[in-house]
Amino acid sequence: MSGEFKAVVDVDRPVQEVFAYLADGRNDPRFSPRVLKIERIPDTPTAVGTVFRSTVKDAGMKTAREFRITGLQAPVRLRWTEASKNSVTVREGGYDLESLAEGRTRVSVFNVLEGHGVGRLLVGLALAAAGKDAPAFGIRIKTAAENDIGPG
Q: What is the model's pTM?
């Protein structure tokens, strides 16, 4: 079983700056409290093939995660897939960004989750939790990006 959750939020910062902020996955802990630590490999600007290794905490359990960038079209599109072997993984995820008037950016984020082994039984619960949190996740992205990028 697999399924998708998504969030859409408008950020009061220019698209190029929001894209650069989101493409640097090391910023994820600023808006995703489940990410405890994260590193970029290689430690160069994000490109197709870049890997982000993280430790996350879900449902009280810490797990190692590894995401590989599979698509990048600055400043409008970023795609990733999870390479780690966990019971529930992200088959595909991404950001789509749209430039709006007055230096604002619409950010759409999605993740397609799939279960493996016992994770096939858990993926529905993971999707329900992620879907319930999606609006708040969008607001956390907006808040972090606006605070960290600062006004133009």
A: 0.93
